[in-house]
């Protein structure tokens, strides 16, 4: 798959995840600087909204849209935005935008999500844009890698896939 950022080809580190794969466990960092561990979400439907930085317009739209949609989903669904922004910036963003239905985690310290899910752009050390949905059994049910990182994800398709799993 060819991924571009502003028209320039980028290289994704790791192996790109596919539908049907067992979702790899990973560590990241919460806004309070404590560790997040994906295995703590076993038995839930998990939506990973992946973005380069919440300080850009398209990333902000992605985070706020999934936050709004999270209110319409069942309690079995966890929506997480993941970027490599520092937790301080993520916290400031969530406070300013009123994000309280979805959470945000950072891959800045470990970069395990980026490498294990194949989203880390080697040249920029940012995450490519996309969505990964993991079902209650820990299997990947949906994946989108946005071919041009500056474009939006397909919200309708992601929400349709979440609906199928609820």
From TrEMBL:
Class of the enzyme per the UniProt entry, highest EC level: oxidoreductase
Keyword Ion transport among record annotations: no
Protein keywords: Antioxidant, Disulfide bond, Oxidoreductase, Peroxidase, Redox-active center
InterPro entries, A to Z: Redoxin (IPR013740), Thioredoxin_domain (IPR013766), TPX (IPR002065), Tpx_Peroxidase_subfamily (IPR050455)
Domain Thioredoxin per the UniProt entry, residue ranges: 17-166
Pfam families (alphabetical): Redoxin
Sections of the chain in a coiled coil: none
EC number: 1.11.1.-
Protein name per Swiss-Prot or TrEMBL: Thiol peroxidase
